Amino acid sequence: MAKSTTPRTAKPKTAAGASAGGDHNRPVPDTPQDYKASKDELLEFYRQMVLIRRFEEKAGQLYGLGLIGGFCHLYIGQEAVAVGIQSALEPGKDSVITGYRDHGHMLAYGIDPNVIMAELTGREAGISRGKGGSMHMFSVDHKFYGGHGIVGAQVGLGTGLGFAHKYRGDGGVCVAYFGDGASNQGQVYESFNMAELWKLPIIFVIENNQYAMGTSVNRSSAEDLLYRRGESFRIPGLQVNGMDVLAVRGATEEALKWVRGGNGPILLEMKTYRYRGHSMSDPAKYRSREEVQEMRDKSDPIEGVKKYLEAAGVSADELKSIDQSIRKIVTESADFAESSPEPDPSELYTDVLVEQY
Ligand SMILES: Cc1ncc(C[n+]2csc(CCOP(=O)(O)OP(=O)(O)O)c2C)c(N)n1
Ligand SMILES: [Mg+2]
C-alpha cells in the first residue's frame, strides 16, 4: 500500500475501509451493511445471476462455432456486481455506462436476451441492429449508454451523464463502471476532479477483477487499494465484496444515499474475479488453474446466493426448476439469433454520422 504524505483527517469507518479525504468537518458515508433481502428478492438475484452465467456460457459456445466474430469478453464470475447494483437503481431515472464487458449488465437491466444474442451474432434483430456486436450495445430506453471499447472512455462520458442529471434536475444518478486497468487512465482523474468540483450525481464503480488483460492489479498499480483512488479529489471510497450480491446491494444503497443527498460522487471498489480469460482469444497463461479453481470453490457468487436461499427454506427442486427455465430462455435466445437474418448491406451506410445536431 502506498504511503500518503498528507495527513488523513477523516478516519476510515470500517476495517474494510470507508474513507474520505478533506477537512475535519467533512461528512463521510455510513458504513454499508449487507442488504437484508426477502426470499423473493433472493430468488430474483439467483435468477438473474444464473441467466447471466448460462447466457455467457452459450455466447462462449457460439463464439467457438464461429457464429460470433470480433472480440467477446465474458462476465462469468462477476455476476453479483451488476445484479446487486442494478437492483438498487430506479429504472427510467438512473443511467448506466460501462466498458466492453457489457452483456451481463444488459441482462441485469432486464433487456431481452434475444436481442442481446442477436447483437452478438451480428443479426438485424440485435439491439444495435447487428452493427455493434459484443462491445457496443446500447439502449436509450433503458438509459444504458454502452458498451465502450476504449478503456476508460466511459468514465468521462459517464461524468457527462452525471452532469446532465444535475443540469436537468431529473433526480437521476449515473453509475459509471470501469476496470482495475482502466483505473490507471488519466482521463479518469480529470473526470473525478470535475465530478467532485461540481458535486455531480455519479457513482464510480471499479470492477476490480484483479487483472487487466494479462497484468495483475498488483503489478500495474502503485496504489492497489483502488477504493482510495478518489482521495486526492475528496471523493470517498468503499471497498466491497463484489462476490456477494447482498454486500454489493448494501454498499449501493449507501452510495445512492450519499449521492442523492447532494454530497457529490462516491467510489465503490468491487473486489471480484473473472473466471474466463480476458476475451475469448486469451488462454490466460498468466495465472494458475488452481487460483481460478479456488475462487470458484470459495467465493462463487451464485453458490453464495444458493446458501442464502437454502437458509430461507427454498428447496433444491425449486432451484432446479429455475435452472431449467433459464436454460430454456438461453437456448431460445441462441435459436432466435441464429434464425434471424443478417442486416441488409445498405445498413452499412446508416447510423454512421449524425447529420444534424
Ligand atoms: C485506450 C485503450 N488502451 C488499451 C486498450 C486495450 N485493452 C482492452 S481491454 C484492456 C484491459 C482493461 O482491463 P480492466 O480495465 O481491468 O478491465 P477488464 O477487462 O478486467 O474488465 C486493454 C489494455 C483499449 N481497448 N483502449
Ligand atoms: Mg480488470
Automatic annotation (TrEMBL):
Reaction(s) catalysed by this chain's protein: N(6)-[(R)-lipoyl]-L-lysyl-[protein] + pyruvate + H(+) = N(6)-[(R)-S(8)-acetyldihydrolipoyl]-L-lysyl-[protein] + CO2
Segments forming domain Dehydrogenase E1 component: 47-345
GO MF entry, a single one: pyruvate dehydrogenase (acetyl-transferring) activity
Family matches, as PANTHER family: PYRUVATE DEHYDROGENASE E1 COMPONENT SUBUNIT ALPHA, PYRUVATE DEHYDROGENASE E1 COMPONENT, ALPHA SUBUNIT BACTERIAL AND ORGANELLAR
Subunit composition and interactions: Heterodimer of an alpha and a beta chain.
Cofactors, names only: thiamine diphosphate
EC identifiers of the protein: 1.2.4.1
InterPro entries associated with the record: DH_E1 (IPR001017), PDH_E1_Alpha_Subunit (IPR050642), Pyrv_DH_E1_asu_subgrp-y (IPR017597), THDP-binding (IPR029061)
GO biological process: one example: pyruvate decarboxylation to acetyl-CoA
Signal peptide stretch: none
Keywords for the protein's UniProt record, in alphabetical order: Oxidoreductase, Pyruvate, Thiamine pyrophosphate
Presence of keyword Oxidoreductase: yes
Name listed for the protein in its UniProt record: Pyruvate dehydrogenase E1 component subunit alpha
Protein task: The pyruvate dehydrogenase complex catalyzes the overall conversion of pyruvate to acetyl-CoA and CO(2). It contains multiple copies of three enzymatic components: pyruvate dehydrogenase (E1), dihydrolipoamide acetyltransferase (E2) and lipoamide dehydrogenase (E3).
Biased composition (Low complexity): 1-16
Sequence segments annotated as region (Disordered): 1-34, 333-357
UniProt keyword annotation of Oxidoreductase present: yes
Enzyme class: oxidoreductase
